[in-house]
Write a structure and sequence with these properties.
It is built from four helices and four strands. The chain has about 140 residues and is α+β, with helices and mostly antiparallel strands. Helix 3 packs across helix 4. Belongs to the HutP family.
Length: about 140
Amino acid sequence: MSLSEERRIGRHAVLLVLNSEEDMLHKLNWKSAIGKVGSMESNKVVAAIETAAKRNKIINSDVYREAHALYHAIMEALHGVTRGQVQLGSVQRTVGLKFAILRGNPYENEVEGEWIAVALYGTIGAPVRGSEHEAIGLGINHI
């Protein structure tokens, strides 16, 4: 099993959320979507990312394992943004995030199957303008 640097799905998700690298994704034949979400409720962040994944046909919402894999990737990314405490409004925090979702096979051997990555980048802080700081999170799960 080999995981070449060119096929590291997490790296590409972070680069996509920070910048656009659509040429490489097209070459790898991966599905992707980017979007933005701001909220004081973590369930709204999850819903925005799930909706984008469904609208862009990154996951098939009729297949449970695909939605389940996406959910776990989102939660892992949120853990990074929220420093392990996936709470927002209940502890007087809000986020303004850009997100990227990628689906593809990060391995050269196709038998390894597809994976999904969710990258989040933006700000988190008190719900007062100027009281936030940057944060980033990444979640990767197999489908």
